[in-house]
Here is the input.
Amino acid sequence: MTTSRYNKLAGKHVLIIGGTSGIGYAVAEASIESGARVTVSSSREVSIKTTLERLSKSYPKAQISGYACNLSKTPIEAEIEALFKKVGTLDHIVYTAGDKLATIAFQDITMEHFIKAGQLCFFAAFFVAKIGSRYLTPGPTSSIIITGGSIAERPMNDWAVIGAYASGLYGLVRGLALELKPVRVNLVQPGGLATDLWQDMEPAKREALYRSWKESFPTGEVGQAEDVAEAYLWLMKDKNVTGKVAGSDSGHS
Here is the structure.
């Protein structure tokens, strides 16, 4: 596929870790629609299979593939290295992997809980960047995008641990932007979104949560994954942006 001055993802290879649901799946769709070759990864083979079937049905001509990678393992370096060996050369790495939000009362926080809460949202993100950078096409047209959250700017009760890691991602991204230059490293910071993250919540509680967001967000709307996906497209395409935070939070922060 030919490229143009503005269709900068045409023919590029994008890996989306956490690409089987929520924001990651939306980024996969948006990347395909922009002409990219897409590889998705998550911890479960069944999720990979289902996602490839969904994407193939929506985009029958797309170049898509998928591999499982269990980032909850300790140590995780070997698991990540195995993933990248299967994926091969890349132009962009998008990291949206996460688990259930580890909210806990402040007085109940233990060291074990603190470390476990950071496995996917912080530690794995670091090693994906470290190992994955070796598989990226050299130069500023390539990038790594990590996902944080608006809790970094708007603290809430029982979210101290998550907020600490979310804030730490800003410093991590700025440091990686220097360590991995000229490859670019950026952060997307979403706010409250209507995604699969809340699917296990009782419907009445979920609707109450969304209603409270609508009342407090300046836009008066709850964000959707396809809205936030636009931030990832921008950061992949704009080779002049590195070490930055792209906020997409309905104005919450």
